[in-house]
Amino acid sequence: MFHQASQTVINYIFGGTGGTGGGGGVRGQGGDGGTGEAPALNYAITAQNVTMNTHPSFQNDTSAMHILHRAIAVDALYNSAERFPQPRCHPETRTELIEKLCRWVTDANQDHSIHWLHGPAGAGKSAIMQTLCERLQEAGRLGGSFFFKRGHSTCGNAKVLFATLAYQLALHRPKLKRAILRSVETDLSVLGRSLDVQLQNLILIPWKLADGSLPSALLIDGLDECDGHKIQQEILRLIGSTANKHHPALRIIVASRPEPHIRETFEEESLQGVADTTNIEQSFHDVWTYLRNEFSRIHREHFSMKNVPTPWPSPQILNLLVERSSGYFIYASTAIRFIDDEYFSPCKQLHIIIQNLPLDSESPFATLDQLYIQILKEVPSRHLGILSDIFSAVIHLSSCLRLRDMDELFGLEPGNVELTLRPLHSILQILEDKSGQLVIQVHHASFLDFLKDAARSSSFYVGSTGHKAKLGQSILNTLAYTYDNPRINLADFFFYWHVEGALSNVD
Predict the structure, then answer these.
(1) Which residues pair with 253 in a beta bridge?
(2) Positive or negative, the Cα torsion across 474, 475, 476, 477?
(3) Can you tell me the distance from the alpha carbon of 190 to that of 183, in angstroms, rounded to the nearest whole number?
(4) Alpha-carbon gap, residue 173 to 58, rounded angstroms
(5) Hey, do 67-279 and 381-503 end up sharing a CATH topology, with the first three levels equal?
(6) Burial (Cβ within 10 Å: 0-12, 13-18, ≥19) of residue 227
(7) Can you tell me the distance from the alpha carbon of 64 to that of 14, in angstroms, rounded to the nearest whole number?
(8) Per-residue pLDDT at 344 exceeds 60
(9) Is Repeat given among the entry's keywords (predicted)?
(10) What does the H/E/C string look like for 280-311?
(11) Which positions ≥6 away from 351 have C-beta within 8 Å?
């Protein structure tokens, strides 16, 4: 005989992580693999009576928040480690534009809820968006950010855009957090639904339920660098069809190049009357201010500059560089990175840049192209062949490139790829990925455009079908070698997953 209990026992059971076809049950047992988390069950036992509730209940919201976190692109956040050091505006540049955008976000009477910030490659869009994120964060008005990056496994993936923004909104305000996590609890599959469903269920409906009346901003940078034209247009149409009609306090700033398909989408009816636009115009004064301050810093910090008189460089040289920039920052920032090399004399590096001035050209990229070519010519001639192979891999393989694998791919001694790229720190960087492996990362997308345009890059062009076929042959040769040599781990070769892409459309 059992004695009647005089105490109520309350407990919680959380479902386990299950595989395909299996879910967490009452005992928390799931199948092997998979990621589906079961809802929690809570029950109360009093005496011999058992009452059980099976509605979803996530203890302290931690499980729902964890599920949401697993669906986001952390690297796309404005303050992510992936983006360090982040490009930002010099404190004395773009001041009027940044103040204008901050006022636009915080103005409760603002008629428009979308702002398109556009400009050509190298205009400084990402630096402006980074600085704007920091300013809005300080003011408590940054709801979230997403910085797209072409070819990146997560930062180039539009499917995680709204989940990433929703996660940041959940951190932004407690009321929003409860509403967003309730959506996740109600339907765990929402994170795999269409962009339309994600926008509605993760952002717009929670915003309405939480009574988001205080203006906050979502910033989307580099829209033109995500998956493809159609999905870029879909994102714009989605935010345009809902933003101003029901959620006027939710402000969205989109930055991109003025690509025709993006411009045409902003001219569609769904975005008429809800979107402001700002063209990032040339600013020779801002470029002059940036260069003046950077040259002063280099003169102050570089040990070899102690005996160089000021002002350095001369006003004539400074004005010449400003003129060559066409009022945009990509030329100026690339030149500064080249000059500010701890292993070379800044005076010598500056001389290399100014001694070969570009010929008159109708191309808007003439001065930038000449700068890229001049920097590339610093690579010793004996390395130019392998440099072409490296750039071909950068163009045709759609992931971060591990230097160790590239040494194997091109039959080089370990470390040779890194040695070849040493003079090119001003246009690309070598970083450690999350596994501790060295990878190549290009500073600016304009350099990839340069490499793919034969008229611009001349002998450094690597965008042809022939380059693609040669790369594909190198991949196949390496895979054949690894097959015959079991000491080599085939799984280590990242390019194995890109063979089909590298060989597609090859005549």
Answers:
(1) 115, 219
(2) positive
(3) 8
(4) 19
(5) no
(6) middle
(7) 12
(8) yes
(9) yes
(10) CCCCHHHHHHHHHHHHHHHHHHCHHHCCCCCC
(11) none
Q: Are 113 and 274 in contact (CB under 8 A)?
A: yes
Instruction: Look at the block and give the residue holding tokens 């930062």.
Output: 155
Q: Where are the beta strands (DSSP E) in 233-297?
A: 250-256, 275-279
The first and second tokens of residue 311, run together, are 């002002």
Contact assessment for residue 221 and residue 240, using Cβ atoms and an 8 Å cutoff: no
Q: How many CB atoms lie within 10 A of CB 161?
A: 26
Q: Which pair of tokens denotes residue 300?
A: 């102050």
pLDDT at residue 472, rounded to an integer:
84
pLDDT at 87 over 50: yes
Angstrom CA distances, 172 to 81, 165, 181, 191, 450, stand at: 20, 10, 13, 20, 40
Q: What is the 3-state secondary structure (H, E, C) of 125-148?
A: HHHHHHHHHHHHHHCCCEEEEEEC
Please check whether residue 218 is in contact with residue 211, taking contact to mean a CB–CB distance below 8 angstroms: no
Residue 24 has pLDDT above 50, yes or no: no
The residue type at 222:
G
Output the DSSP codes for 8-71.
EEEEEE---EE-TT----TT----SS--EEPPPEEEEEETTEEEEE-S---GGGHHHHHHHHTT
Average pLDDT over residues 282-307: 94
Tell me the three state secondary structure of residue 334: helix
Question: Which CATH number is 67-279 given?
Answer: 3.40.50.300
Closest C-alpha to 274, from 295, 247, 299: 247
**Amino acid at site 260:** P
Sign, Cα dihedral of 156, 157, 161, 163: negative
- Residue 419, Cβ neighbours under 10 Å: how many? 14
Judge contact between 155 and 222, C-beta under 8 A: no
Distance spanning both ends of the chain, measured CA to CA: 84
Rounded CA-CA distance 40/28 in Å is 9
> Exposed, middle or buried: residue 222 (CB in 10 Å: 0-12, 13-18, 19+)?
buried
Instruction: For residue 11, report the phi and psi dihedrals to the nearest 5 degrees.
Output: -145, 170
Alpha-carbon distance of 380 to 391, in angstroms, equals 16
Chain-wide mean pLDDT for the chain? 81
CA 166, CA 179: separation in Å to the nearest integer? 10
d(CA 25, CA 369): 61
What residue ranges do the domains of the chain occupy?
8-57, 67-279, 284-355, 381-503
DSSP state, 487? Answer: T
> Lowest mean pLDDT: which of 7-21, 238-252, 267-281?
7-21
Token code pair at residue 324: 């060559």
Q: Give yes or no for a contact between 45 and 76, defined as CB atoms under 8 angstroms apart.
A: no
